[in-house]
Amino acid sequence: MQDSVKPDGITPSQTVGPFFKYGLTPTGDYAWNDAFTNSTLTPDVSGDRVRIEGRVLDGDGATVPDAMLEIWQADAQGRYADPQDKRALPNASFRGFARCGTDKDGNYSFDTIRPGTVPDADGKPQAPHLVLAVFARGMLRHLYTRIYFGDEAGNTADPVLALVPADRRATLIAVRDAGKAVYKLDLRLQGDNETVFFDV
Amino acid sequence: MTFIYPTGSNTAHPLPLSPEYKSSIKRAPNKPLIPMRHTLSELTGPVYGHETVREGDNDLTTQHKGEPLGERIIVHGHVRDEDGRGVPNTLVEIWQANACGRYVHVRDQHPAPLDPNFTGAGRTVSDAAGYYRFVSIKPGAYPWGNHHNAWRPAHIHLSVFGHSFVSRLVTQMYFPGDPLFPFDPIFNSVPDEKARMRMVSSFDLENTKPEWALCYRFDIVLRGKNATPMENH
């Protein structure tokens, strides 16, 4: 073991590239097993089950068939499955993390539960949301954004949505398919209606 | 331990738009990223331990009937935070081309042979001190269509989680002294030379196994430092 030496900085990011699928999202197409799927659902999970789906589009409006998306979210009680969240134990096996590669038409989907309310840095409630990381060939570092739920009254008081110019907020809000537990949100990496990404 | 994640550390990363890397031109946002204070959503992250990894997943040379062709290597090091402490029990995933510079991915059209004994994917979990280790073969350089006579320097892709969702890192580990460094727009997308060199492994003679495999050391430094009253939030 080496002694701990203070590093002179972090390791820089590099693109995930075009060829990550066989390692990170093989989903049966390669001789490698998946560590993660596009679902956070576990047998013990409580809360409303929802599907979130959409497309990833580039600056020309072309679909991105080689993106990887990851979500991180609280459980239905608003608790994160991380010991750093000291409030309470979440559902015993719920992890709150999922990963999805886009398909040849740029589609993604996640099966999960609608998260609860989580406090912000001042203890004020944030509207239910997922944190989303977007990786792709051409992206030298992944981008962070959030997904909110269109039928959630708490969005109007959400402190993070409030940071976003009003005319761009819709890029963060998934719209419910009438009558179904399906929410739709396209991610636009660039150009008209460009998705809001956060500097975190 | 409570960690903070100063956004200043992010200056080590490439900018989203790096025009020399052509794929970035239509995939980089035009609008500035919106700054926000970290909340519990950013300060926590997924916890995946040994149950996620099978015995032998960190040895890419034993996943098939025979041994892959190429130069056998050991790649090891520590996952650390910005204070230099090891990051324990964190998942490290890798993927790479074979010794000929060919990926098993269906869209890789480089006319170099596939190796039936090599997939090129591995994963492991760092130990209590943050130490990780892989056995693999040295990947080859390969051409790509970015510009005339464009070749990627040999590299291994890495994906690491760390203590929170904002410490998440996907990067590439390079090999020391690669003559392709000056010509690679992905490597050179990192603006600072010292930061660039943190993506280059070092040859490790001490841990090279005689009659068996060369060893390379690669420490991975993730965002996150100890929150003390002296730190400037």
From TrEMBL, chain A:
Pfam families assigned: Dioxygenase_C
Keyword annotations: Dioxygenase, Oxidoreductase
Top EC class for this record: oxidoreductase
Ribonucleoprotein in keyword set: no
InterPro entries in UniProt: Intradiol_dOase_C, Intradiol_dOase_core, Intradiol_RC_Dioxygenase, Protocat_dOase_a
GO molecular function, one term: protocatechuate 3,4-dioxygenase activity
Oxidoreductase keyword on record: yes
Span of domain Intradiol ring-cleavage dioxygenases: 52-80
Enzyme Commission no: 1.13.11.3
Family: Belongs to the intradiol ring-cleavage dioxygenase family.
Name of the protein: Protocatechuate 3,4-dioxygenase subunit alpha
UniProtKB/TrEMBL annotation, chain B:
Family: Belongs to the intradiol ring-cleavage dioxygenase family.
Keywords: Dioxygenase, Oxidoreductase
Gene3D superfamilies per UniProt: Aromatic compound dioxygenase
Protein name: Protocatechuate 3,4-dioxygenase subunit beta
Enzyme Commission number: 1.13.11.3
Keyword Thylakoid: no
Organism: Bradyrhizobium zhengyangense
One Gene Ontology term of the molecular function aspect: protocatechuate 3,4-dioxygenase activity
Source species, domain of life: Bacteria
